[in-house]
Amino acid sequence: MTAQNSNSAVLQIRQLDAWFGQHHAVHGVSLEIEPKTVTAIIGPSGCGKSTFIRCLNRLHEEVPSARASGQVWLENQDIYASDVDPVRIRRKIGMVFQKPNPFPAMSIFDNVAAGLKLSGIRRRSVLREVVERSLRNAALWEEVKDKLTAPGTSLSGGQQQRLCIARALAVQPPVLLMDEPTSALDPISTAKIEELIQELKREVTIVIVTHNMQQAARISDKTAFFLMGDLVEFGDTSTVFTVPKEERTERYITGKFG
Amino acid sequence: MVPEEKLAAVSAVQNVTAHSHREKHFSDRLFFWFLRASGLGVLALLLSIGIFLFRASQPAIEYFGWNFLSSQNWDPVAKDFGALAVVFGTVVSSVLAMLIATPMSIGVALFLNELAPRSVARLAGFLVEMLAAIPSVVYGLWGFFLLAPWMRSTVQPFLGEYFGFDFFPIFLGPPYGVGMLTAGVILSIMVTPTVSSICREVFKAVPRANREAALALGATRWESMKVSVLRASRVGIVGAVILGLGRALGETMAVTMVIGNRTEISSSLFAPAQSMASIIASEYPEAAEKLHLAALAEIGLLLFGVTFVMNAIARLFVWQVKRRVKG
What we know:
The complex is a heterodimer of chains A (258) and B (327). With 258 residues, chain A is an alpha/beta fold. Chain A is 35% helix and 25% strand.
């Protein structure tokens, strides 16, 4: 296993398989993700796109009866190697979920500081600095700077989702996974998050699962199309949406099924 | 668009429903009356118990007044009665019980909900619930014949040796076996099913997404439980503990059998004592004096009031959690 990461990819996925019990949800997917790009994962419901992204921070295996195999290389390390602690990996790969899920009974400040506290950072001055920076990066600072002690759940849905983004950014992960982050939000909040993703990609590599093909076309540099657990097509977003190589991709993006 | 028409339509609908109400089947009406009577009956029963206790304790209330609460003398021969010693015994044994039962119950609930495989969780959960089904007198027997001798021979000498300080005398004094500590241990086992099953309900109300949020931030399993489950459940846990405390305060038979039945306030947890419930159970059959009976009834009244209030508070806490989760 030498020279596994000779090219510039930040994430290299090799022959990744995932199961729920007997159900084979992701079939031997290989994919390379370039640094500081936005990669969109599209496909119809149940195509394995969420399962795939949840394998990238080893969260998939937390579900009872779920397992995964294959290789995912992050910074010269296969995160599926037997000596790797998934807890350490998850600190390097942030995740934002479908529904905003700020910790209840926790203030806005504490929500953003949660990841740092888990890493053992407790100095108030450090926490304050990082919380402010993260909230600024998530474009939420101006809206919440006067009520940092208010509960995170008191914010609107869109604000909660940006709070969750700030929470994920606080530990400065090189990679940010987003699992349909706008599917529970209204159009204005969605637009804000999309705008934010464009800002964030200067610093972070983003992999986003989306149900919304227009969204994928708007925000991503690369697009991967999944169908029934297979990676059907992967390439530049402009190419995939205009001159797809596969007929199945074309049929999906022109709305013939899915 | 056209308000008059709309109103007409609404009143037409109302007419129809009103009509069908009148037409309701006789058996339905009978059933509703039965339900209503049962509901009101429970309320009436509660009230009548309160009134009965109040009237039965009238002689003691008139004779001792507020002194009843502040005096620790309990001397049936001298006809001098005060509740302080039994209130003390009740509070100390119940608080001890909760100190042991709270971490144990939270641990049981976390294990069954978050860690155990489903089959294990179902079996173990069933067994824990079964603890609640064991008759209190059986706990008492077990406590008297097994727990108390073990406390006397092992636990109490150990605690006395290493933690018995003159400035902190709760572990000093001769190990009797029976006493407040033993009562506390028995009570902790008895309330654990109640507290842990409510904790399980409260933990279940925390969405899975919150646990995953913590895991995705790089939390270990335990940290994820702490950050997402326990933190969000604080109010509910308090409710569960108060409910357990309410049960511990009123528990009678098992406590009567292991607390030692000596109506005295002692600084040592090893010392025999008496609780509000145990003094009623142990003295009522022999109480011939009118004043003695009234004093016992007044203790009953106190106990009734305290457990009623405790349970009400606990329900409010648990309701608050459920409401908040539902949004």
